């Protein structure tokens, strides 16, 4: 007779068990979230307090602390999270985000508003952050490098039109707005809130189209001025995006074209920390060397001693001005390789060169200057590669001002990530250095 096999026995579940542990006890003491919170505590958020309406002794629901929202977004950028809804979900489910918000997750509207608003306040925070790094000796303005990268905007090619199409769409949008204002377009079955949302959407579309028409006129005037100066035939009709009037059609390294912004980052070379960043809708880097160096001086109170840049930033007036101001420009002459291939000397003085420009050209032919320039490529390219690794591959906000806000968030995240890496390296070195002494004490 065959005996029946006993039923298998598994471990029991005890989901009603109380752990009696706080968020602070659950988060490891060396977690990156604690370092991000410590960084946020070093910044001055007093400019944010003026807009708070809930004050002591008066009624009103208290808002979320700005340092908490700042730390949440900074940690989110480090983790490649760019959506306010995704960040809200992380605040409810992930321990590090729960620890940062103290177990009280902000709603996605609050997170989105804090991320996209406060352009001047965020710039002030970044400037004070870099100034604090300078005071600690972590940022050195003796030698900086700058590089630009094109980041696609939040606009599709289907929204890129000439003026006649934009004017037609503008007339349709205006008619739609007029209909809503006269309450003829209010559909039955819609709540008052839905009707208000549709009226707001109609007004915003009308405003975007008006800005797009103005952008077309501005680009057309600029092209006509360049054509008249060069004696060229009249340019073709300009286009603009009705989704984002500030975005421009740019060529990418792979040969393709897309509606994008040009993001420029100034990096110091001692620890590869971002000193400043700027966003433009200019297709080329030409003529941006001097404005970026002046921005560094305006924000930090002193100019860099030496700047490393590629030949795309070449502008004779910029070089002459910076060399006269005491900034050593390390940048290869334009068409250096072509002239060498043709048997010409790219470092010889050109006919229109001013004395400072001629001296710069001659200096770039020396081995020390060429050795200094070779230090540029790695750090300048890495900073944008690390931003892409954090899943920042396109802008989520529209408009030049808000694009600058996104670039600032990425610059802050880059600096926070670099500081975390440097801290880990210091701890690893100290542990290795202290290991023989520990072993000796144990023996």
How do the helices and strands line up, and which of them pair or pack?
Layout: H1 23-26, H2 32-41, H3 46-49, H4 66-78, H5 84-93, H6 95-101, H7 108-116, H8 119-135, E1 143-152, E2 160-162, H9 163-181, H10 192-230, E3 239-241, E4 248-251, E5 257-268, E6 273-280, H11 289-300, E7 306-308, H12 316-324, E8 328-330, H13 336-341, H14 355-363, H15 367-373, H16 377-389, H17 400-442
Parallel strand pairs: 1-7, 7-8
Antiparallel strand pairs: 1-5, 2-3, 4-5, 5-6
Helix pairs in contact: 2-4, 2-6, 4-17, 5-6, 5-7, 8-17, 9-10, 12-14
If you had to describe this structure to a student in words, what would you say it looks like?
This protein has helices spanning 23-26, 32-41, 46-49, 66-78, 84-93, 95-101, 108-116, 119-135, 163-181, 192-230, 289-300, 316-324, 336-341, 355-363, 367-373, 377-389, 400-442; strands at 143-152, 160-162, 239-241, 248-251, 257-268, 273-280, 306-308, 328-330. It has 443 residues and is of the alpha/beta class. The protein has 3 domains: 23-117, no CATH class; 120-155 and 248-426, Nucleotidyltransferase, domain 5, CATH 3.30.420; 158-241. The strands form 2 sheets. Strands 1, 4, 5, 6, 7 and 8 form a 6-stranded mixed beta sheet that branches. A two-stranded antiparallel sheet has the order 2-3. A hairpin with a 4-residue loop joins strand 5 and strand 6. The radius of gyration is 28 Å and the shape is globular.
């Amino acid at each position: 007779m065959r005996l029946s096999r006993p039923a298998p026995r598994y471990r029991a579940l005890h989901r009603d068990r109380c752990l009696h542990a706080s968020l602070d006890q659950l988060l490891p003491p060396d977690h990156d979230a604690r370092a991000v919170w410590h960084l946020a505590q070093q910044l001055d958020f007093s400019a944010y307090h003026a807009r708070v309406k809930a004050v002591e002794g008066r009624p009103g629901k208290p808002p979320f602390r700005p340092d908490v929202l700042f730390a949440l977004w900074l940690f989110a950028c480090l983790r490649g999270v760019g959506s306010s809804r995704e960040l809200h979900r992380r605040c409810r489910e992930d321990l590090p985000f729960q620890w940062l918000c103290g177990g009280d997750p902000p709603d996605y509207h609050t997170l989105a508003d804090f991320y996209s608003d406060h352009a001047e306040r965020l710039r002030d925070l970044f400037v004070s952050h870099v100034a604090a790094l300078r005071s600690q000796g972590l940022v050195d303005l003796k030698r900086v490098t700058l590089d630009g990268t094109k980041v696609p905007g939040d606009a599709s090619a289907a929204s890129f039109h000439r003026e006649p199409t934009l004017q037609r769409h503008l007339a349709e949008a205006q008619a739609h707005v007029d209909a809503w204002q006269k309450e003829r377009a209010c559909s039955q079955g819609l709540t008052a809130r839905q009707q208000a949302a549709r009226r707001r959407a109609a007004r915003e579309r009308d405003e975007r189209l008006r800005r797009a028409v103005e952008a077309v006129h501005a680009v057309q005037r600029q092209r006509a001025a360049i054509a008249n100066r060069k004696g060229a035939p009249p340019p073709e009709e300009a286009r603009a995006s009705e989704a984002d009037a500030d975005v421009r059609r740019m060529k990418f390294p792979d040969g393709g074209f897309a509606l994008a912004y040009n993001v420029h980052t100034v990096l110091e070379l001692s620890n590869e920390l971002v000193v400043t960043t700027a966003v433009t809708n200019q297709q080329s880097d030409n003529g941006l060397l001097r404005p970026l160096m002046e921005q560094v001086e305006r924000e930090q109170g002193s100019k860099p001693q030496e700047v490393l840049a590629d030949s795309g930033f070449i502008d004779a007036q910029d070089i002459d001005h910076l060399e006269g101001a005491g900034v050593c420009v390390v940048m290869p002459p334009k068409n250096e390789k072509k002239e060498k291939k043709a048997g010409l000397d790219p470092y010889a003085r050109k006919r229109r060169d001013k004395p400072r420009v001629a001296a710069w050209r001659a200096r770039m032919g020396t081995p020390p200057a060429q050795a200094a320039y070779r230090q540029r490529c790695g750090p300048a390219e890495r900073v944008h590669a690390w931003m892409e690794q954090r899943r920042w591959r396109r802008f989520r906000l529209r408009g030049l001002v808000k694009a600058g806000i996104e670039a600032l968030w990425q610059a802050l995240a880059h600096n926070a990530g670099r500081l975390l890496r440097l801290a880990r390296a210091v701890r690893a070195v100290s542990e290795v250095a202290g290991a023989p002494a520990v072993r000796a004490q144990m023996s």
